[in-house]
Design brief:
The protein is mainly α and about 325 residues long. The chain contains 14 helices and 5 strands. Strands 1-2-3 form a 3-stranded parallel β-sheet. The longest helix is centred in the last third of the chain and has 30 residues. Belongs to the class-I aminoacyl-tRNA synthetase family. InterPro entries: aa-tRNA-synth_Ic (IPR002305), Rossmann-like_a/b/a_fold (IPR014729), Trp-tRNA-ligase (IPR002306), Trp-tRNA_synthetase (IPR050203).
C-alpha cells in the first residue's frame, strides 16, 4: 500500500496539441508546486486522446513531444516528477478492463463531463465506445499509482467522483482495501474562458492562447478578446462580469489591488478597453516569454526529452505493475 503520509499526485493531459493558458491556470501551476510537496506522476494521455482521434493517430503521437516540452518549459523537474507515456504502460489498460466490470453503461452516460464532451463533438448516439468509457480509463490511471491528490479543473470533478465510486466498489467486492480514494485539487481559477467568451479555452474551438505563443500572437489574441459589447465609448460604464479581459487579469495579474481599481474605474466609466487590454498584454508577455524561450531551448534536443520520457515510463510501469499485482491477487487471478 502507498504511504499516505506522503501525498501521491497523478495528473495529465490529452495529447491533442500543445498546452495553453487554460491548462496553465487549471492545473499546471499547481503541478509545479506539488512536485516539491508530493510524489508526482504526470501522464501524457496519448491512448485517451485516440478515443476520438483514430482518424489522425500520427498527430497524437507527434504531440507527445509537444506536451512534454510544455511541461518542462513551465518548470516541471523530471528529477522530482515522473513524466510518462500512457500507451507505454500496458498495466493501465489491464486495470481498466477489470474496472469496466464495476460500472454500467447508464452510469457512464450520466457522467456530466462525458455528456458535455459528447455534445461539443456532436456525437449524439454515434459515440466511440472508447470515448464513452474513458472515465474508467482515467480511474485506472489514478488508482494504478494509488494517487491521493489529482489537480483538475472544475469540469473534471465528476471524473474524480466516478473514480472514487469505482474504488469503493472494487474494495467492497474483494473485501479489502486494495485501491485508494483520491481528492481533487482545484486551482484558484479552476476554469479560464476562451478569448471569444463563449466557452472554456480550447484549442479545438480556436479560442486558446498556447504557452508557446509568439509576442505577435499574444497581442492579436488580447486585441480579439470579448469585452462588454455595450461599452462603446470610454465614458460609458462597463460590465466586468463576462468580460474576458478581466477574467484573464483575475487569473494572471498578481497585483489584486490594481485589478480591483481597474474594475471600479471600468464600472464607473472613463476607462477604455484598449487601456485594460494593454495592461493584460504586458502581463501575458512577461509570463510567457521565459516559458517560450525555455521551450525553444529544450526543443533543440528532442532525443534528450524522449530520454526523460523513457526513464519516467520505466518508473511508472514499476509502480503500476505493483498495484496490478495487488489487484489480480485480490481477484484470485494470481495463478503462478
Amino acid at each position: 500500500m502507498t504511504d499516505l503520509k506522503q501525498p501521491v499526485v497523478l495528473t495529465g493531459d490529452r495529447t491533442t496539441g500543445p498546452l495553453h493558458l487554460g491548462h496553465y491556470v487549471g492545473s499546471l501551476r499547481a503541478r509545479v508546486q506539488l512536485q516539491y510537496e508530493a510524489k508526482q506522476f504526470l501522464l501524457l494521455a496519448d491512448t485517451q486522446a485516440l478515443t476520438d482521434n483514430m482518424g489522425s493517430p500520427h498527430r497524437i503521437s507527434r504531440n507527445v513531444l509537444e506536451v512534454a516540452l510544455d511541461y518542462l518549459a513551465v518548470g516541471i523537474d523530471p528529477t522530482r516528477s515522473t513524466i510518462f507515456i500512457q500507451s507505454q504502460v500496458p498495466e493501465l489498460a489491464e486495470l481498466s478492463q477489470y474496472l469496466l466490470n464495476l460500472v454500467t453503461l447508464a452510469r457512464l452516460e450520466r457522467n456530466p463531463t462525458i455528456k458535455e464532451e459528447i455534445r461539443l463533438r456532436g456525437f449524439e448516439r454515434d459515440i466511440p465506445a472508447g470515448f464513452l468509457t474513458y472515465p474508467v480509463s482515467q480511474a485506472a490511471d489514478i488508482t494504478a499509482f494509488k494517487a491521493t491528490l489529482v489537480p483538475v479543473g472544475d469540469d473534471q470533478l465528476p471524473m474524480i467522483e466516478q473514480t472514487n465510486e469505482l474504488v469503493r466498489r472494487f474494495n467492497n467486492s474483494v473485501e479489502r482495501a486494495v485501491l485508494v480514494e483520491c481528492e481533487a485539487v482545484l486551482a484558484r481559477v479552476p476554469r479560464l474562458p476562451g478569448i471569444d467568451g463563449k466557452a472554456k479555452m480550447s484549442k479545438s474551438l480556436g479560442n486558446a492562447i498556447q504557452l508557446a505563443a509568439s509576442p505577435d500572437e499574444i497581442v492579436k489574441a488580447v486585441n480579439d478578446m470579448y469585452t462588454d459589447p455595450n461599452h462603446l465609448r470610454v465614458s460609458d460604464p462597463g460590465r466586468v462580469e463576462g468580460n474576458v479581459v478581466f477574467a484573464f487579469l483575475d487569473a494572471f495579474e498578481p497585483d489584486i489591488e490594481l485589478v480591483t481599481e481597474l474594475k471600479a474605474q471600468y464600472r464607473r466609466g472613463g476607462l477604455g478597453d484598449s487601456v485594460v487590454k494593454r495592461e493584460l498584454n504586458e502581463r501575458l508577455q512577461a509570463l510567457l516569454a521565459p516559458i517560450r524561450e525555455r521551450r525553444l531551448e529544450l526543443a533543440r534536443d528532442p532525443a534528450g526529452v524522449l530520454a526523460i520520457l523513457s526513464r519516467g515510463t520505466v518508473l511508472a510501469r514499476e509502480t503500476a505493475g505493483a498495484t496490478l499485482c495487488d489487484v489480480k491477487a485480490a481477484l484470485g487471478l494470481s495463478y503462478f
